[in-house]
Amino acid sequence: MAAPTPITVAYGDGIGPEIMEATLRIIQSAGANIAIETIEIGEKVYLRGVDTGMDPGAWESLRRTRVFLKAPITTPQGGGYKSLNVTTRKALGLYANVRPSVSYAPFVHTLHPTMNVVIIRENEEDLYAGIEHRQTAQVYQCLKLITRPGSEKVIRYAFEYARAHQRKKVTCFVKDNIMKMTDGLFHKIFDEIATEYPDLEHETWIVDIGAAKLADTPEMFDVIVMPNLYGDVLSDVAAQIAGSVGLAGSANIGDQCAMFEAIHGSAPRVAGQNRANPSGLLLAAVMMLVHLQQFAVATQVHNAWLKTIEDGVHTYDIFTDGVSRQKVGTAEFATAVIDRLGETPKVLTPVSYDLAQPMTLWHQQVQTKPDKRLVGVDVFLDWDAGSPNDLGDALSRVTYGSLRLRVITNRGIKVWPDGLPETFCTDHWRCRFMGDNNEPIPPSHVVSLLQEITQAGFEPIKTENLYFFDGVPGFSAVHG
Ligand code: NAD
Predict the structure, then answer these.
(1) What is the distance between the alpha carbons of residues 403 and 399, in angstroms, rounded to a whole number?
(2) What's the predicted TM-score (pTM) here?
(3) What is the pLDDT of residues 92-105, one digit of tens each?
(4) Does residue 283 line the site of ligand 1, with CB under 6 A?
(5) What is the best residue among 264, 274, 282, 317 to mutate for testing ligand 1's pocket, by most ligand atoms within 8 Å of CB?
(6) Does residue 479 have its Cβ closer than 6 Å to ligand 1?
(7) CATH architecture, domain 1-93+244-367
(8) Hey, what CATH class is 111-242 in?
């Protein structure tokens, strides 16, 4: 037998220790070939003053084993504590968050008895880059970052996952009718990568109607890939409409490391009572076993769990009179699953991971550097001393080289020249200065222009350079 694979385990907070104990007992009874390193994370570590909730020794273990089975943690109330999950995902490069949502009708109540959807959420960027600023008395900003490599990684993973797991279709959710550059890039890369997978159907939905369809007719979806924020929200919706967030596991996959956890939190109100459902963490552990290529053990555990659910042995959260047969606690549920190892479900569809194909993961594409030309600058001002026309008149007198004021917007709507008096304005103004006919301008002219603006009595709070890339504008057009 091969040497056991080292994995890092954290028991977490609240119900964490109970559900982790149950999970490990089940997978070890099934013969999981693992060597466990335990680390402490979460509330106690935060309260010791470690703002990430994880000690340096814990990081060492994770970087050594590269596989992390994590129970939920409690983030202490109050400010100053960083999200352990967000930090772990970004620090270890866990770019794909994989969340299957499956119905177990008629044994677990759901309005969608044939639902079987996997949401693959981009995990590192989008509005979760955590780059936020207060810029004026009235205005706060959060930067949405979508990158080519970040999008390529998660989208390729989605197609590879679909192929390896015998799925038929990959759907992309974006909002590129509004965010034409950021979500537009995600959509474009999705279309590019889809051409490499002619055996799989692909389609794109605008996220609003896509979300409505997902909530109403989830059967029409198979694998869905989407940017971080949409994926965060919709994977919880999907898990809940499949039956319960308490049943869903998730995998956070990177090129070098992976983390597996339930999607629910530490449920402090039921902690320490042997009541919590360990299913979410157990199904996450099944995903871990697949990742470790221990396919037979993964298959056996998953089928025994399905049989337990089918036999009506249920924890309180999914217990329904007339459907469930036996209400059990966490430890008894684990024993029931162990008793069924080697059995397969009769009504629910059994799983088989033996067919799982190895996946081709992302590799850096060779990209030619685009020709990049500076043609202007958006100068953002903190200003509340008059009307848009007052500002336009004053700034029209401020120039440098060929840089001249062309347009002013407030919250993205054009207010000068020819704005509408009805448009509501805040104290945050974007003033677009460009040269003539998109001619290139020297970067030093931007700095000199800022000096002129400051000397004219205005307060620039930030700038965004305006570039053309290979002759295509790298900035959004002005509305209004
Ligand atoms: P929660 O998921 O802990 O609980 C939501 C509801 O679901 C509660 O009614 C709870 O009793 C129930 N529930 C959740 N898991 C269950 C299970 N396995 N069995 C039975 N019932 C279950 O969400 P919350 O109450 O918003 O958060 C509690 C704490 O968990 C907070 O400190 C939060 O920061 C943390 N949290 C951690 C993670 C994580 O570590 N990945 C994720 C979400 C929330």
Answers:
(1) 6
(2) 0.94
(3) 999 999 999 999 99
(4) no
(5) 264
(6) no
(7) 3-Layer(aba) Sandwich (3.40)
(8) alpha beta
